[in-house]
Amino acid sequence: MGIVSPGFSGRRRTTGPDLPPGQYLTEDFPVLSAGPTPRVPLDTWQFVISTETGAEFRWSWDELMALPQETPTVDIHCVTRWSKFGTSWQGVSLDTLLDGVDTAADYAQAHSYGGYTTNLPLDDLRDGRAWVVHSYDGEPLPAEHGGPARLLVPHLYFWKSAKWVRGVRLTVEDEPGFWETAGYHDYGDPWREQRYQGD
Amino acid sequence: MTDMSYVDGNMLDGPLRELFAVDLSSATGRCESCGMVGPMAGLHVFAQAPGLVGRCPACDQVMLRLVRAPDRAWLDLRGTTFLQVPMPLDQPHPRPL
């Protein structure tokens, strides 16, 4: 038995309105990966938004860090059923990155160093609901958790929060990504338990 | 977790037995990306993920994805050009016309 009883370790929400259906609460931070961990040097790192007309908007690491920074604290929900409450990040809002990007696209496909892809409606990247984050708990984001930078879209299952993100393609048609073409749900709302196709 | 976070393709034996009557762990596959031909048991399988991801041991490209829902399974082999499956000699088989 631990020295600190569960009653004194802070507010715990193992059930209730904060936990989506079918999820359990975890205190650690599991590492999931569909492939080898890319190691991306900061001096060659870049983030690119491309539009349906072929226009490209690029940021180097220094340019990303010079943009207005936000510090979201959010709950995250993995489709493998763990949820983690109150995770603290630092990064740049997609609203900032998309400001000035002229597009008629309805969809976005994030792509990563290492080849991973994931798709979501462009609207889900807007209105303070998505970030490119580079720090976790006040420290640079470790490579195994997606560093140098990952997408953070906490209102969808965490496979949508692409690790090692290198860009977002804005598309007119929906283009399913790595897991969405292999059985997982196209949208992935944890509150509606949209795990697999047809859920 | 590091780059050595995969296990070898022998672990696919059980999950694939759910889908196929033949033993695919003894099959040979060709990587669509680099063309290497080798045993499926030699794939690097990343299992700490929403599904199983089998990657070519030579070029690291994805050759196999297997996703298992409670009531369904998806097998994506677009990264595998062919599967060569050993067959018993005494088994009747169709011949080319």
Keywords for this structure?
heterodimer; A: 199 residues; mainly beta; Sulfite Oxidase, Chain A, domain 2; five-stranded mixed β-sheet; 11 strands; 6% helix; disordered N terminus; B: 97 residues; five-stranded antiparallel β-sheet; 5% helix; globular
Description:
The complex is a heterodimer of chains A (199) and B (97). Helices cover 6% and strands 29% of the residues of chain A. Chain A is mainly β. Chain A has a single domain (45-192), classed as Sulfite Oxidase, Chain A, domain 2 (Alpha-Beta Complex). In chain A, the strands form two sheets. In chain A, strands 1, 4, 5, 8, 9 and 10 form a six-stranded mixed beta sheet that branches. Chain A has a five-stranded mixed beta sheet with strand order 3-2-11-6-7. In chain A, a hairpin with a 4-residue loop joins strand 6 and strand 7 (117-121). The longest helix of chain A is centred in the N-terminal third of the chain and has 6 residues, at 61-66. The radius of gyration of chain A is 17 Å and the shape is globular. Chain B is mostly beta strands and 97 residues long. Chain B is 5% helix and 33% strand. In chain B, strands 1-4-5-6-7 form a five-stranded antiparallel beta sheet, with no helix packed on it. The chains are: A mainly beta (199), B mainly beta (97). Chains A and B meet through loops of A and strand 6 and strand 7 of B.
Topology overview:
The complex is a heterodimer of chains A (199) and B (97).
Chain A: E1 24-25, E2 46-50, E3 56-60, H1 61-66, E4 73-77, E5 82-93, H2 94-98, E6 107-112, E7 117-121, E8 131-136, E9 139-140, E10 150-152, E11 165-171
Chain B: E1 7-8, H1 13-17, E2 28-31, E3 37-39, E4 44-46, E5 52-55, E6 62-68, E7 73-76, E8 80-84
Antiparallel strand pairs in B: 1-4, 2-3, 2-8, 4-5, 5-6, 6-7
Task: Report the uncertain regions of chain A.
Answer: 1-11
Provide the succession of SSEs of chain A: EEEHEEHEEEEEE
Named at the architecture level, the CATH assignment of chain A is Alpha-Beta Complex
Question: Ranges of chain B with pLDDT <50 over ≥5 residues?
Answer: none
Number of strands of chain A: 11
Shape of chain A: globular
| Sheet having the most strands of chain B | 5 strands, antiparallel
The value of Rg of chain B in angstroms is 14 Å
Q: First CA to last CA of chain B: what distance?
A: 53 Å
Question: What best-fitting shape of chain B do the alpha-carbon axes yield?
Answer: globular
Strand proportion of chain A, as a percent range, falls in 25-35%
Helices of chain B, by number, come to 1
What gap, in angstroms, lies between the N and C termini of chain A? 41 Å
- Biggest interface between chains: A-B, 20 and 22 residues
The percent of residues in helical segments of chain B reads: under 10%
